[in-house]
Amino acid sequence: MAFDKDGNGFTFVFATVMVVIVATLLALASISLKPFQQKNVSEEKMQNILKTISVDCSREEAPGIFAEYVKKRVVLDYTSKIISENEGAIDKMDKTDAFNINTKKEYKGLDENERNYPLYICEKDGKTYYVIPVVGSGLWGPIWGYIALESDLNTVYGASFAHDKETPGLGAEINTAEFQAQFPGEQLFDENGNFVSIKVIKGGARPEDLHGVDAITGGTITSNGVTKMIERTFKVYETYFNTVK
Q: How many Cα atoms sit within 13 Å of 84 on the Cβ side?
């Protein structure tokens, strides 16, 4: 039976076939590109962790030097109890390895007491550093990053932040070198050993304040998001820090 090419039936069938073909091609493209996307994400993650301990490298170079600086990968639970420890090569199929934990996905889908809390113990120039992932909420979406502490488990050595879709020129400034450069030297605990965290302060922090940095002008909600994610995350690690100290 011949189709009437000018009729509605032919138009409907043609449109349906084209939708199926395009959807199939897109699905095949997505499947074929997934390994490359995962590789890029993994390399970028290594690069950002290394950045917090002042190891500058390209994304492509990161896998080759990651193990040179990151000596141990630890996972804690909400009570600061160690769940797993890994050294050496990363097995991408090992879901207990700290490197394979998707902190952004857990932040979105799990309650705080159900999440895993990764920790990277690094060594550089004979010194030990502890790198911790942080995840929170900005104005328009998730914000995240890594903060490296010196061996006293109090003083920030380096910080790296990123975002999904914060406003350019405002909240998006959290991923700039200028904003991140405020964090080295800041401290999580006061002189009495009490956890006070680090706050991003609207109007600016006092020069002598070891627990505050300047907020982003016009980016109050994103700045508050950074404050909350640091305080919430590092509070979980407090017991571990006290044990190691």
A: 15
